[in-house]
Every structure is written in structure tokens, then in C-alpha cells.
Design a protein that fits this description.
The chain is mainly α and 356 residues long. It is built from 16 helices and three strands. It folds into two domains: 18-227, Tetratricopeptide repeat domain (Serine Threonine Protein Phosphatase 5, Tetratricopeptide repeat, Alpha Horseshoe), CATH 1.25.40; 233-349, no CATH class. The protein has a three-stranded mixed β-sheet with strand order 1-2-3, sandwiched between helices. It is globular, with a radius of gyration of 23 Å.
Length: 356
């Protein structure tokens, strides 16, 4: 939910130390500088910067970044930004303002799960269990009820709802049963979310302590799985105009995207994309997709990685990053839809020729 994972270049440091706080502040400052240089990617970069400020307990600066994003023209996801702002405000004493924002987020009925999850978990963290339950339920009613099976990124709504209902002592209902069936941990949700578990940590019985450690490890695995959405195995596609601009700006990449006497670089590139996807499909790889590249976002990504766009090793990392931002289009396209390559022709009469 929260974009609070440090970039791979951020050195690991012990959590809670002065060194750790400085590391988060340094990373936040770097992300803010990068956002200033690449305004087209500013929202994602500044959300990450705000998360680092929160981790460094620099919460006023995080709120200022959220305010700046909300004041910008046409933010990509204003409801999520407001949810993150509310959760942050509550953590440093602005409960009334946080509650007002949370009410607004719920009234907006967002059609993506992240705002519901952020708000529900904020309420739960402050022991507002009934409100947390109602929030998870409202989000599930909008995003889970009509989907079979529920999309992966909506499952934390069901898990959060199950957890809060256990704390409230509510009986199982159909959605609790569904959450149980979606749980991939070694232990059932009823055991993972047992309110009495915390008491066992004070036990003098080694067997009870070992059992609790096992349960905590299983819960951690569930949490990590919830944060690790099954993003598609994606292949990078440069539209014709973007590829032309890329090669004009960075001629060293011509070896990655060659032309020949009969075909343009874009023709060879799109044929290679389709071929790679067909090979992956033939090997049994599921959940395939195509991510569309742009020169400005690639340059911003290179800057965030403290590298240079001419480094060909950045291209697969860039592809994965776009996929994790839900930028991938499923492949193959649905029957009768336009081809992914941008030709304007139907997929069946373009790159889909011969595909069964």
C-alpha cells in the first residue's frame, strides 16, 4: 500500500537508529531533487519521498509534500494522497483533521483498493475497530463483491476485515470464509488473527513461545505476500515516436534497437516484442503483459537509479518498475481490439497474425 520501500541503492541500516533516520532523510532529499528535475514523474517520486520522511519521523515534511501534491494540477491519485496524509497526520497528533479527511476519503468511494486499505489500517492502528471494520467492508463491497476471484490487490481488504472482526469478536460471515480460502500462509487466518495471541508472549512455557514464534513468522509471510502483487511478466515496448527520440538522444542504445536495410528500428523492435511474448507463452509462463515506455520517464528512472540512460542494464529494471506500477497491458489483446504496437490495425491483422 504505502510506497515506503527504499530503492535498491539505499543501504540497509538498523531500524530506529540515528543512522537509519539519516538514511531515510537523505533518500527523501534525493527523491525530491529528482522530482524537481522530472516533473512528469513527480507524484510517484514525491510519494516515495514522503514515505521516507515518515519513516524518519519527519512527519511535518511528509504532510507538506502531500499538500503540495494535492495542490498540483490534476494529481494522478488524489484520494490515495489524502488517505496517506490522514494516516500521517494522526501519527503526530492531528486526530481531528485526520478523521475529517478519512470521512472524505470514504465518501469519495474510490475504485482502487489502496485508499481503503490505508484508511482502514490507520483506524485499526488507533483502536477505532468498528470504523476500521466498516471501512474494510465498504471497500470490499465496491471492489470485491462483483469480482471472481477477487483481484490480488483487493485481498488485503478481506484480510484486514477478517482481522478486525476477530478483534471485535464477530462471528464468521461469507467474506471471512472467502478470506480464509485466499490465505496462503501455513496457518489459518483464525489463528493468525487470534486476539489472545499477544498474551502468550508473556508465557514462561518454552513450547508456547516457540508456537507463537511460528505463528508470527507465518503472519509475516502473509503480510509480505500481500505487498507482493503478482505483477505481469512484462516486455518493454517503445512507441515509434518515443523510440525515435530515444535513439536520437542516446545513440549508444542503437545496438539494443538496430535497424537494417529492409526494416526500421521500430519494425524490428515490435517484431521482437511479439516474438518474446509468444516464446514466454509457449513455455507456459502465465500473466503476460506489455509496458509502454517514454523517454522522459526512462530518464527519470535512470536518475533515480543514479545511472545513465545509455546503460542497457537499466532497461529490464525499468520494465519491471513500470509493471509494478500497474502500467502493463495484458497480452495477447482481446479479440477485435487494436494491436498493441500502435499501428491502428486490429491485433489479428497485425502482430497477431497466425496466433491461435
Amino acid at each position: 500500500m504505502r510506497p515506503d520501500t527504499p530503492t535498491p541503492t539505499t543501504p540497509a541500516t538498523p531500524a530506529g537508529t540515528d543512522v537509519d533516520r539519516k538514511s531515510h532523510l537523505d533518500e527523501a532529499a534525493r527523491l525530491e531533487r529528482t522530482a524537481h528535475r522530472y516533473p512528469e514523474d513527480a507524484e510517484q517520486l514525491l510519494l516515495r519521498a514522503a514515505a521516507h520522511h515518515e519513516l524518519a519521523d519527519n512527519r511535518e515534511r511528509a504532510s507538506a509534500l502531500y499538500d503540495g501534491l494535492l495542490a498540483a494540477e490534476s494529481p494522478e491519485d488524489p484520494v490515495l494522497i489524502r488517505a496517506l496524509k490522514a494516516a500521517n497526520l494522526w501519527e503526530y497528533g492531528h486526530e481531528a483533521e485526520a478523521r475529517a479527511i478519512i470521512t472524505g476519503v470514504r465518501s469519495a468511494a474510490p475504485r482502487t483498493p489502496a485508499p481503503w486499505i490505508v484508511v482502514g489500517e490507520a483506524l485499526e492502528a488507533h483502536d477505532e475497530l468498528q470504523e476500521a471494520h466498516d471501512t474494510f467492508t465498504e471497500g470490499a463491497a465496491l471492489l470485491v463483491e462483483a469480482a471472481t476471484p477477487p483481484p490480488y490487490d483487493t485481498r488485503p481488504l478481506l484480510f484486514g476485515r477478517h482481522r478486525v472482526r476477530r478483534l471485535l469478536g464477530a462471528p464468521h460471515d461469507d467474506w471471512d470464509t472467502l478470506a480464509d480460502t485466499l490465505n496462503t500462509a501455513a496457518l489459518p487466518l483464525d489463528e493468525l488473527h487470534d486476539p489472545n495471541r499477544t498474551w502468550s508472549l508473556g508465557s514462561d512455557n518454552p513450547d508456547e513461545l516457540r508456537a507463537e514464534i511460528t505463528r508470527i513468522q507465518a503472519e509475516l509471510g502473509t503480510y509480505r505476500a500481500a505487498l507482493s502483487r503478482p505483477y505481469p511478466v512484462a516486455v518493454l515496448h517503445w512507441p515509434a515516436a518515443e523510440l525515435t527520440e530515444l535513439l536520437a538522444s542516446y545513440p549508444d542504445l542503437s545496438s539494443e534497437y538496430p535497424a537494417d536495410n529492409e526494416h526500421t528500428a521500430h519494425e524490428i523492435h515490435t517484431a521482437a516484442v511479439e516474438s518474446a511474448l509468444r516464446d514466454l507463452s509457449a513455455s507456459g509462463t502465465p500473466n503476460l503483459g506489455i509496458v509502454e515506455a517514454t523517454v522522459p520517464s526512462y530518464e527519470a528512472f535512470a536518475a533515480a537509479e543514479t545511472s545513465h540512460p545509455t546503460d542497457p542494464h537499466l532497461l529490464p529494471l525499468y520494465t519491471t518498475t513500470l509493471a509494478t506500477r500497474a502500467r502493463a497491458l495484458p497480452w495477447p489483446p482481446d479479440a477485435g481490439t487494436q494491436c498493441w504496437c500502435g499501428s491502428g490495425r486490429g491485433y489479428g491483422g497485425c502482430h497477431g497474425v497466425g496466433k491461435q
